[in-house]
Amino acid sequence: MPLVPPPPADPIGQPTVIQAQPGATAWERFAEELITWLKTLASAAVYATLIVTFVCQVARVEGQSMEPTLEDQDRLIVNKLVYRIGEPRRNDVVMLYYPLNPNKSFVKRVIGEPGDDVYITDGKVYVNGIPLKDDFIPAKFRSHDEYGPIRVKEGHYFVMGDHRNNSSDSRMWGEVPKMYILGKVQLRWWPLSTARVFE
Fold first, then answer.
1. From CA 124, how far away is CA 141, in angstroms rounded?
2. Which of 35, 50, 116, 197 has its Cα between 20 and 30 A from that of 21?
């Protein structure tokens, strides 16, 4: 039979009795857990707000003005940080506030940067006298309009939809101030079959 050591003695030689602290009630445990969850949710909401405000945003295409590049109901990731540290560049696909109603947002392609001379003849777009490389646009999406010439104002951008004969863009409502450009379309993630990263 194994020997069991006696309980430790206190200074006067009496056995020490260890009493367990009374446990928290079920209600107290529930309240503590609820507070922990609420703190976690509040933190997550703050982080999500910061990400959507400053870093990136999920968006959905509505309409055909960017066909064939983007289709109606495509889901996008918009990089909102890139233009906080840099400038939009010609050929970027961007999300922007509609200048005539900033409660709406559009997706368009940057055609002209500040100081660029833009004109269109028989639907062909020229920037600083050089024809725009837009061979990816099918003939059925091309317009035959005349526009300009104009010089893009400082701090503004000339944007167009890729579906040239079905797009409301800078040809109708003028250049877009940089502060109205929300970010660069970085990724089409849905539908998965046509997922694409935009340079």
1. 12
2. 35
Contact call for residues 168 and 65 (beta carbons, < 8 A) = yes
Is 143 a known active-site residue? no
Q: Which of 80, 108, 143, 170 is catalytic?
A: 108
Q: Which fold has domain 54-197?
A: Umud Fragment, subunit A (2.10.109)
| Residue 65: active-site member | yes
Across the beta sheet with 124-127, the strand order is 130-131, 124-127, 117-121, 147-151
CA distance 42 to 45: 5
pLDDT in tens, 14-37: 544 444 445 668 888 888 888 888
H-assigned helices in 12-154:
26-50, 82-85
Residue 36 structure tokens: 């922990």
Overall pTM > 0.90: no
Find the catalytic residue in 65, 143, 167, 170. 65
- For the chain, the domains span 54-197
